[in-house]
Here is the input.
Amino acid sequence: MATRILYVITKASWGGAQRYVYDLATAAKSAGLEVAVACGEPGLLVERLRDADIRTVAVAALGRDVHLGRDIKAYRYLYRLFKEERPDIVHLNSSKAGIAGALAARLAGVRSIIFTAHGWAFTEDRPYLVRTIFRVMHWLTILLATRVIAVSKFVADHAPLFGLPKSRVALVRLGIGEPPYLPREEARAALARLSPPLQEAPRALWIGSVGELHKNKGVDIGVAAWQKAALGNTEWIIIGEGEDGARLRRVSAHLPSIHYLGFVADAARYMKAFDVLLLPSRTEALGYAILEAGLAGVPVLSSGVGGTREVLGPEYPTMGFFMSEDSDSLAEILRASIKDRNYLSEVGQALRTHVRNTFSLDQMVDETLALYTKP
Here is the structure.
């Protein structure tokens, strides 16, 4: 009888954690495991899993925001689900799915409970009391899980162990296969159709950002720096949507060289349209966008927070980093970095080699599946 694995994730929209679940679920299915995915808020992940012939289960009460009544309902539903499904392995993703799912799995008698830490909520800019509560919640999740996967060394080093053995946390870095990139000019033409003013700047230097429009991603820092830098013949293309989108569009309204394209399906395909990827994040465990840029040979400007320096590697030039939260520092780096396109190209090619050698999808899958078989 095939090993049964049930993945659990809070949201089914298409982001980093959802892509991770999709990659692992399809790989586990190909390896002969019996796979299902339970998720809360519906989205593109469900559609893609169904296309891959992977069963999905809706857990309506499993939401992103803290809500005691709904969280208790989510726990109860997951407990009943685990008792009915009787999975050999439950693999939990995201903070909310982690604490409710780990407790439910323990009480339901699941033998192997894996939790992937895509980041720690207590490392974000929150009130002290809230960060303390999250730290305790994450510690309880680690305590209840049989194994915790950290997607970067930064995440592993910041695990709230509180006396628990370090062996509970395994470092398995994110990995990706090379996306089906469009050629540069084709990618630019496609993005220009989403923002007609870009059609007037096909030869300009394009700086791109890809990610959720959320405070953690620091796009507001980028907007402040963009205004200070006053760059000529340069466009900033922002792909993604989120709760901060309306505000960011308002504060950028007087800057016509900033283009918000909203959510774009399979955004990685267009990465070669950019000369540079800008990552002004306040916190970042280890994002897919930076891996996708690396494989496309696109150099990166980053605040260097979290696990981003691991992706860029120890030999990445200092011109690629600016001080987090400092728009003046970013403005200076923007002005300096765009002066020599040939140098940018050389940096991008070196990054491509580093990412290809260090962050492969096959390695991530192999190391994760190996953890499923460990006691």
The domain at 184-358 is CATH 3.40.50.2000 (Rossmann fold). The chain has two domains: 4-175+360-372, 184-358.
